[in-house]
Amino acid sequence: MSVRNERPGTLLFPLDAIATSFDSESTISVGVIHHPFNWFKQPEAMRPLKQLLESLVDIVITSHEHSPLISETNYGKQISVVHVEGGALQELKHPQNSSFNVLKIELGGSPKISSCTFNWEGTFYKRLDQFADRELNSRHRIDKHFRLSTSFEQFVDDAELPIVDSAGRAISLSDCFTYPDLRDFGDIAAHSEWKRVRAEDARETILTANYVLISGAESSGKSSLAKTLFRDLHHSGKLPLLLNGRNLKSLENLPSLRKSFERAVKSQYAKLAAENFEQLDAARKVLIIDDFDTSPIESEQLTSAIKFFKESFGCVILLVSEDAIADSFDGSSDAAAAMAGFQRFSICEFGHLRIEALASKWLSLSSDSRDEGTSLREEIDRVCRVLEHTLKTNAIPHHPWILLVLLRQVYVTDEVAAKNGSYGHLYNAVITAALARSKVTSVDIKTKYTYLSHFAKELYNKRQPTLDAEEMKSLHQSYCDLYDLELDYKATIEDLVNTGLLRDEDGIIAFRAKYSYCFFLAWYLNRHVHQEEVRSTIRELCGQLFHDESANTVVFLAHLCGDPIVLSEMKAAAGVLLGSLAPCNLTEDVQFLDQLNPKTFQLELPSTPADQNRRDRLEAKDEAIVEREPRMHDGRGITTHPSPKAKNSEAEIQRDGCGPLAKPCRSLAKFCGMKLEQSKRPTSSKRLSRFAFLDDDLLRIF
């Protein structure tokens, strides 16, 4: 494992030589290892060894680098593991260097730890920094009766994603989870204005509330949040119980509901009996129910259910879909009245800072994920730039699983294509990852791509966002006849629903997300681009770029299709919009900029650190993402064609000289082709912000 002249990041360790669990009556567990973790090779040894030791002990003592340092790993406000790095008591080459740490551990009552470092000053040892008294409230001292079962520990750390890291190892939830920003709506029964809860405060905000309702869009990370809250609560000494709404029983009789709790206790805790759990202090117990809106509890039973939950648990956390909020839990509903006292939160899409945090976690999984000589900061910036370009279309939701798929693809696909701005393979990766969740292996992914593309084209042809059961069955049969396939209708729809791409509500079929519709419509057009009817559709889409679904479909098509018709039609559309405008004269037409602020001023660099300036800039951008309507990506809200009213409004905007600029890559002279000072009505940033071609900073100037 260790050799002479070794270098950091190269050592290996026989992980199977360490017992993965032990049954001990000890109050404190201590692990001692010579080399610090950064000397072990990643991902083969460093991370697995660190995780294994931290799962077994309260204190980890290391040496070798002769740099005395004491740190701690936190779970919320609770200490999980204390790390102590030893100094050199007798250093051969530098005998004047001598230091040591003193640890003080108090075992009475709640165990505490404190420490201080002593350094040789020539004639005496001088006491340096002191590590103040802290309680050791880690999960490793939890009463053995409250320890989790091995299978459930694996479940709560399962990310349930069909992706692996650069070493081919499945990604765990603890590897990739980062708390999202939240909207805090206050008491659910009130009609309060929401306020933002930043990600760094999200965990503490949730865990300090007694009764919580959390909503999130489809695939926004609700289940991952539920698992992480369970783990963090258990780490802090609480006794949480995690259930899924589908597994709850009706409240027609309370014993049936208690049975659900008993089964959960038995499967989640290794040695805790259900009877003992029920008799424990309610203040220590926490109930977490994921997908609560799928439970069989009727609305008229909700008041009794909530009362029973509150009597049995000191803290109740319920997670529901955004649909449930709109349909059942709005401020005026009976359900909201029954849940008075619950604090409502909503999960936000990931903003720039959250994407950066996720990229940082991903890059930390493997030291091989960046080029030699490239710093971690430089690599994070590079990855985030690729993601930013990929996600520029507002059709793609910034959900964690999509971002992780894209992060993985940045390293396993052609980097030359990514650097040249070709992101079609990344869009394909997102869809393929969704289809990889399928449990039906008899139908290949290519067939599913084609099936969904025909569904998207049928929606476009019928000018409607959904198909009823009769229409969908007719499309299914036509597809099977066209390709000479025998696909069971019910099994096919159920499979695509389970992958998260389709939605089936009482036989009404729709895409779950708008980006899926836009992608598969583009996929169909690309596959049939030689047909005149399809080319006519492409011309129609390029002529209505003011319409979100049309514009996003064209964006996907531009990445997927190599036929020149796409670019030629986009140029033709730009010519219609800008053909009557004269190129900008950089001397005369930009004089209005000089009039914005007649006072001269001197630019000064802020005195704050560069990292803080960068965070402040990204924070300002994230505010706009938090403002997004959570249901904006719902596939049931697709408009396949712009309404006549929208067309008339767009024509009016074009007459005012504020039409969309279809050639964003041209020079500034072309960009300033709008005669803003001659507009008949004031140009507002709200109107300009409809078009993704304009930079945010320019919008603020205008």
From TrEMBL:
It holds the Pfam family nSTAND_NTPase4. Transmembrane segments: none annotated. Residues 466-521 form the STAND NTPase 4 small alpha/beta domain. This is STAND NTPase 4 small alpha/beta domain-containing protein. SUPFAM superfamilies: P-loop containing nucleoside triphosphate hydrolases (SSF52540). Gene3D superfamilies: P-loop containing nucleotide triphosphate hydrolases. Residues 632-655 are annotated as: Disordered. It comes from Lacipirellula limnantheis. InterPro entries: P-loop_NTPase, STAND_NTPase4_dom.
